Amino acid sequence: MKVRSALTALALVVAPGVAVVGTATDAFAVTKISHATATQMFRQVGITWSSSGNCSNRNNSTCTSFEQLNLATAQGAQTLKRASGCALNITGGTEVGHASGTYSHWNGYKLDIGKNTCIGNYIKNYFSYSGLRGDGYPMWTSASGNVYTDEGNHWDVLYYNCGGC
Length: 165
Hints:
Strand order of the largest sheet: 4-6-7-11-10-9-8
Structural class: alpha+beta
Shape: globular
């Protein structure tokens, strides 16, 4: 069997709840994690999460789910928490109801974070203002390239990477 064929067919489980997903033709492979793994990672650094429906069902828009979250996204939130020292409450994850696209909530690249003065000041003081998103919301970009968009009542955070974890 060719190496490329073997890689294309491969789904490697590296730890409980963690899987490397991708093919040899992908630009890069992402590591997907389970809801349980993400919540464990968030608890380790004091990140909280909430949902209007008090649930975690990925297929219910009133829930906050971390099922199929990218490992780098969870690590990025941990990095933000550690670097800022601010309270972080995640209000949106991989559940339905967000905009679609490659770098979307559903695909594990984004989290919504509740607003508070501490995190707002941190983002605006340590990241570079990068203009308005297509829908008119202001954005700030970290040195690592992650994008923090002020959507009015929460921060929409796009994690391309773990933010220097």
